[in-house]
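hey m, so remember when u said the tokens were messed up on ur end? i reran from scratch. heres the input so u can diff it against urs
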Amino acid sequence: MKTAKKLLMTAVVTTFVALSAGTAEAAKLRFTAKGEDSGIENATKRNKFFKLNFQEAPDNVYIKKFVFDLSPDANAIFDFTSGSPGGKGFPFEVSQNSDITDADIKNSFLSDDLQKLTVKFVDEAFSVGEILKFGVDTDRIAGGGKIDDGGDFGIADIKFKVTLSNGTKGKGVFDKKNPLKSVAIANITDPQPVPEPATILGLFAVSGLGAFSLKRSRH
């Protein structure tokens, strides 16, 4: 009986370890700010100052949404309109040569404090290997005025967050590469969630019942 119980407990522990470790693949996203200001690019009809590159992920995993967050710099804002507070501005606009198009965007909206831009994607629209190129006017990054160079985003530690279609999340913070370029990397090391605690407890409960049943069967 002790041998049978020991075997059951070993099986449960092995299952626990296997499920916890998983066979998850990494997910990786690279977000770049490059140029002399998104507003300048918009004026010259290029509109690709920002690039979100979905570099790696498990099969059949997509980007559900991302949040572009200026809040690490208390003075920074997104400037969607002409006039106060930032002067002449413009909202989130997808580049013409972007892999992700307007048709792939479910919706986008700006927070009340003008510091967070949220972009949601149509189901299964943003897959691995694709790049979203876009423009959006920002002001006052890293103590500047209406002109925000790419390097300013790294100086101010501007960040972004992403949610994948399987519910896992990641975030990255911009790092300055040169005066006109900053890059933020989000690495999601476990994009396939491990079992919930209740599931693990259930496994142990089953093992206990199995051991109890074996004990009764011996009498």
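this time it looks ok to me. The radius of gyration is 24 Å. if urs says something different then somethings off w ur setup not the seq
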